[in-house]
């Protein structure tokens, strides 16, 4: 087994072994899914139409933006990256392998939601499966990129909470998960365009359900892709091996460049 | 011809206004155990971490087996094994996983026998955070030596270890040395440095203030050799008796204790005196100044400058 596969296997098992990761990757999103499935189908029946993508985007945000950065920051603070550097573990592996294993955990969660929501809550399954898979992968990639970037720029786990919540909470409220994007006031919809969740939900409606998307889903695809690539590139560029930041190549504010595609979306859409 | 594995020339490391290491130079030969000693903040860790490629020097040059650690980290990684002072392993990593993980990155098969050798075989499935501090250090050492590196950096390797583990570690260090491994040992334990190191360098405020074999260092100090003598009769009981090179006399537990600047003539004179008095010698002990005493002498006298 080569080093990458060994590292991947270790990180994946850690996602199940570590109680916090297990909670954030599985128990929290599936618990919220079950709770909202029971409540919202009674209180807000139209929610069922977008239940599958909304819960998948919620799970992805939980696994990537909320959960992914903390272990990376803790490991850096504990000097684990120094040990990795000495032993030849590349920075790209340190960042991308936890992101990839998180995405794999999200695949499992997404599969559970997609398989059970039609049976338990009468949610409509995706019509266009390739489009659904594309929506999932793009959303996971874009959000994992942001998670990696948060881990790199956060000086402590407290800073992680701040940055993560800055993305997570608005995504919940105006990212199209609970309230459709088309129902938001103009000002809020502009803010909503800065969030990956908005584009994920729009891409799902256009690509997977062949429903009328709020705007051209191709824009969402491009913005999520560009956002993911920029986040990944910036995370690798800004990566530092230890808390003294002696090896960081740029100022953390450069991370804001990752929002550039979303900003372009605000201007154009 | 000297076969230097590590060459440090005018190495300098600065953090803001603080000069952590101020133009130090030293070499380490192949197969040598080289002790790096000094009080906290002396520059040991900065020197070690720069040699390990974790920090870039601010001046001078460093070479480990001909490789510049700051520029050629890929080449360096298979040449060195490092046991860091702090853990360096993820909490949830199991003992066997740690061995597989790091061996995979070095491209070698896992050396599980090292875990057995270091008393970790029964804890193979235990996660790192459940191990005691001593077991954590043993695991860190096992993964550091698993790829058989020609140069080892050990930072406080016996801190937190019990006596059997310490002996086992010292035996392992000797085995590695016999196999040709060069070991850089940073330690606060002077007895360990005196026992294990072929040569030591004492750092103080970023400068090397003494270097040499432990014996050379202790011999050059102002420390006095302690000569303890016990006799059957009272031949040494009079404190006014003088012997060559003796500067202090004390009596404790039936022993007459002489502090000598030159123990050879002192011991000879004591034996002659005992025989001349018709007395019988029961016990005689000569204790030269320890490295710890010499270290305290050096760091104490220069620390206040």
Explain this structure.
The complex is a heterodimer of chains A (269) and B (305). Chain A is mainly α. Chain A has one domain. Helices cover 74% and strands 0% of the residues of chain A. Chain A is globular, with a radius of gyration of 18 Å. The N and C termini of chain A lie far apart (48 Å). Chain B is α/β, with parallel strands linked by helices and 305 residues long. Chain B has two domains: 215 residues, Rossmann fold; 64 residues, Alpha-Beta Plaits, CATH 3.30.70. Chain B has ten helices and 13 strands. In chain B, the strands form three sheets. Chain B has a six-stranded mixed beta sheet with strand order 5-6-7-3-8-9, with helices on both faces. Chain B has a four-stranded antiparallel beta sheet with strand order 11-12-10-13, with helices on one face. In chain B, strands 2-1-4 form a three-stranded antiparallel beta sheet, with helices on one face. The longest helix of chain B has 16 residues. Chain B is elongated, with a radius of gyration of 24 Å. Chain B starts with a strand and ends with a helix. The mean pLDDT of chain B is 88. The interface between A and B is medium-sized, with 24 and 29 residues.
Q: Indicate the CATH topology of the largest domain in chain B.
A: Rossmann fold
Multimerization state: heterodimer
Gap between N and C termini of chain B: 38 Å
Number of helices of chain B: 10
* Strand coverage percent of chain A: under 5%
User: Helical element count of chain A?
Assistant: 12
Briefly note the structural class of the backbone of chain A: mainly alpha
Radius of gyration of chain B: 24 Å
Helix content estimate of chain B: 25-40%
List the uncertain runs of chain B.
none
Number of domains of chain A: 1
* Helical content band of chain A: over 70%
The total beta strand count of chain B reads 13
User: Could you give the order of strands across the largest sheet of chain B?
Assistant: 5-6-7-3-8-9
Let me know the average pLDDT of chain A.
91
